[in-house]
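note to self — DONT lose this again. spent like an hour looking for the file last time. sequence + predicted structure for the chain T wanted, 399 res
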Amino acid sequence: MSRLFVGIDIGKYHHEVSLVSAEGKVLRHFRMENTQESVDRLWGAVTDVGASEVLYGLEATGHYWLALYAALTGRGARVKVINPIQSDSLRNLYIRVTKTDPKDSFVIADLLRIGRYTETVVPDETVLALRDLSRLRVEFTVTLGSLKHQAHAVMDRIFPEWNRLWSNPWGPTARAVLSAYPTPAALAAADPGALTDLIREASRGRLGAETATQVQITAQQSFGVTYGLDAAVLSVRLLMEQMAFLEQQIQTLDERLAALIPQDTPILTVPGIGPTLAAAILGEIGDITRFASGKKLKAYAGLDARVHQSGEFQRTRTRISKRGSPYLRRALWLAAFAARIHDPGFRAYYEAKRAQGKHPNQALGAVAGKLCMVLWAILTRNVPYDPAHALPSLSVESS
């Protein structure tokens, strides 16, 4: 036999396998476990066919495909990772034509056979690390925000004025004060000198006696309730300990991400993009050559505009499509916010969109889209960001 196509439908605990000939005939179908022993049996079954050329196909289903992919490529096999959307489309076509529901593994093998697939690029280890650690950082950040929200709700009961006393009610200075004086009564009775010293040390000299006086007067006049105070105090203390732990872990991630990104990457030359955002963007993009244009990258991030069509009527909505990677979209959104502040060109572009009557979020989305185009250009050419070249492209009329 000249050619053999091996379609594998990935599952968490087991995989379905179809061996399909060049003529589209199913030679064998079987189930394999997600174990090394099963990989050996698969390898043996494929070898027994005696094909001169073998091509394996897997769907990029969650993370479950990666172990099998590594095992097969480690043996020298040619393996293609396919987007599940493509196999779903062909499966629906088979159902319409044949009125039967084919096995998913056969559909994957047939995609390989007829060549109707776009290969999903498997990231190298550095890109994979950037992506996974950046995504973990997002999850930690979301959890940290949730902890602060919970603590905020408790303080609204026992010390409702607390959140208005500080620019950051859960920053180092505020938390140091609350740890030492957990109730309004304790804070009101605090020694002014000791409170001042605590605030000065925690804020590294930025705050002092004036802040201490304001905090103490507010505590003395607090309208907080004392009902259930002990439970509330314990809740806040435990929540603050969780905050401190998560912040330490986020710092560990930041240090690792900064060490992973290439120090000469041009993305770091864009105003407002530091190592953390750069790591998130590079981890989600991977190989920039995957994208033939900035518009392709923009669509991958889900920052392209929706198109609404009905009959002969078509119009482009101002809302973004939100397809693609939500993590990349989030990183670009944060980068756009920073670029609007630090870069005159992007700031002018944002203000021009606002002058057109765009909502602030719409204007910021437009900045994110433009930033996406700029990032594609500098990463593709491997050149630093140059406002003199980038800014002329920021025409207000373009999308």
